[in-house]
């Protein structure tokens, strides 16, 4: 067992730690304040600190944790992806997090169509595994990139397509449980004739066999006639007509209150081969929802709904540049949208279904219909829909889409009446809101725009929740239609009635008589006085944020709503490399935002600032400042910028010798570029000293030919900012190449190749001296220096732009610095990325013979601008070449991060996640746009990758 704590814990947690050691626990028990703070929130409005976090590695570990918690008097609450919108897994006792280590797919039987998994497996991870085998797991939740299957079972999740595919419980065939007494049991269907061994499962089965037939009429009376039933102790589907007990239906939706799931057997189904989507626009939201019944005869797989507020927010996502030309002007005046998805075995089926939808839309007051079966567009539309949760969290200014009544569901025929009543409730409280959801099954997600830092807004939670709960029940539905109950368990008694509510308490008592598991959620055991949580009895996260509201420099930290996008399972996705390699949520954007909040809170309340500040320094030390969170987080939690401010504010006189050198490194490297032979000799002699004194390793060599000689050889003309152009320059056939302090000193051959290709395109090329950008100073928190460098850079760019020539930047890290960090640069002065410049002039490229290449994009650029991969493909196509592009996440370098001694191993581990295999597969024809990426491939794989502009230049040189 590995412990993670800043000081020796006391009391029950210390007792638990000792007991787990004795029991041979192989996972981690984590008691540090940092871990507890990060685990104190989910995607809800609540805040609740656990006593500790336990991360098991096996079923035996779970058994030890359950026995240990019970023995020392601590409760135990399972936690998966941490994306719950109602505090489902927030607890004050032990939080059992299975996501970090118990995330393996154990077996797959294609003939039977079943897969065995651990609870920490993520939905997209499973479907990525199943896809090449021709299968998929149908319940499709918007948080599929980080939602664990254990969590999906806990809430009986459904999501898009549930009208056809049902809920998670429809696919749960069996599960291995750890019960409250520390024993294990495999649950599945129990036949009426089955004789069970003594124990908890037999006690439960006996209770159900006795009570369910007696209460059948009452169960039928209170169960809504709709797709989204009374999940959580699902009495309605628990007993088959022949007396078989479907115990998996009892487990699914129980939110960890009955037992801990250690393994699951899931049914999977064949994957459709083709997909299509019709986007239908209406004048307003109610008109769109009223049209759903007219589209259902076309029988699409799903009909999703987004209002204009949500689509407007979607224009800030990376998907929008691809979608905007597809949707066109016809959709601009729409106030409500339906996304109808179809599937089939071939595109003829897709075309027939899309035509049927268009005909149906013609009778439903639609303002516009766009159909597509382009896989890239369909994926982008689904991405926009899936991002709706996070987009609403982004909101408008300080008013954020707030989750607490976000998943009510009613029979579809009652949806318009329900939504109209819902809007009246919110209007009466003076709140704006956004809406989206699963219109075909009557589930609409409503996020009121609120500032939970305001006491007046926190006071609205109770009256709005009560009113929506009543309205949903009056319309034959539920306040919880998809995301589970969590602290809304207080409404269980209202929906089930006194007789069935007492039965639920008896079921809880049979499983968990001492309220060990997730106490306070849904129901408490009969015979105990332990209360059920109430929606306003758990602490609000906004109340803590109110105390730190004045710290506007760190406002992005309080913007983090816990949606968990940074916990994306796929290592080829760029955000966040330190989390992906460690799976430690303290080392993630959400974790760092939580610690920043706690640090600010401690400063305002005389808390233990020193301890929290130390933990925050440790967490931020592993942040690569790659900026992927700035673009890929739906609420754009910009950790690198806040990290720089934090370092500027807290480092003071404690700066290391390395930091002081880095502060001056950019002008030193520019100097070294002028004397590369001498600079390399000094580097070679000082290599041991740099490792020992400065803790820097594997520093790159200066380009041996030299920046000036290379650009001169390429017939490029040096142009100093402020210098006048020669009189004979044709401005429509000339360009200025900005030379940066990465490529200029260390990889000038890329700039040389760029100049040569531009010349082949018919342009006269001017190049600047090596320009400072201040990136290193910014990352290290020397913000005064960065501001001075920015001012100088702005002046230089103004002088260069006054020539009337386009300014082109080659290195992605610098290009994105201009666009993301140089806030004083007006749009007219923003340099063009190289790919944008060439793609817009691709007709000028000479034709070459068809050679094939592969390219990996730079993580910062690709995360903020996925279109750069498409543009490079178009450039190579115009040149008669073939280019396959791919994303591989971060290479692990990120400026000086990979050169720091203490981060070298993490840097290597990040490289090993994706880059190592792709470099090995693509030697000789693999291209990379980033200088750091090429340096990392050379360092860890001894592979010489080229920039795509070098590939073009090389092809032309052979012609």
Explain what the structure shows.
Residues 46-271 form the FAD-binding PCMH-type domain. GO terms for molecular function: D-lactate dehydrogenase (cytochrome) activity; D-lactate dehydrogenase (NAD+) activity; FAD binding; iron-sulfur cluster binding; metal ion binding. InterPro entries: 4Fe4S_Fe-S-bd (IPR017896), 4Fe4S_Fe_S_CS (IPR017900), FAD-bd_oxidored_4_C (IPR004113), FAD-bd_PCMH (IPR016166), FAD-bd_PCMH-like_sf (IPR036318), FAD-bd_PCMH_sub1 (IPR016167), FAD-bd_PCMH_sub2 (IPR016169), FAD-linked_Oxase-like_C (IPR016164). Keywords: FAD, Flavoprotein, Iron, Iron-sulfur, Metal-binding, Oxidoreductase. Pfam families: FAD-oxidase_C, FAD_binding_4, Fer4_8. The chain starts with a strand and ends with a helix. Mean pLDDT is 92; it is low at 2-8. It folds into four domains: 105-270, Uridine Diphospho-n-acetylenolpyruvylglucosamine Reductase, domain 3, CATH 3.30.465; 281-474, 3-Layer(aba) Sandwich (Vanillyl-alcohol Oxidase, Chain A, domain 3), CATH 3.40.462; 548-650, no CATH class; 660-958, no CATH class. It has a seven-stranded antiparallel β-sheet. It has a five-stranded mixed β-sheet with strand order 1-2-3-5-4, with helices on one face. With 959 residues, it is of the alpha/beta class. Helix 12 crosses helix 16 (388-394), helix 17 packs antiparallel against helix 19 and helix 33 crosses helix 43. 43% of the residues lie in helices and 14% in strands. It has 43 helices and 29 strands.
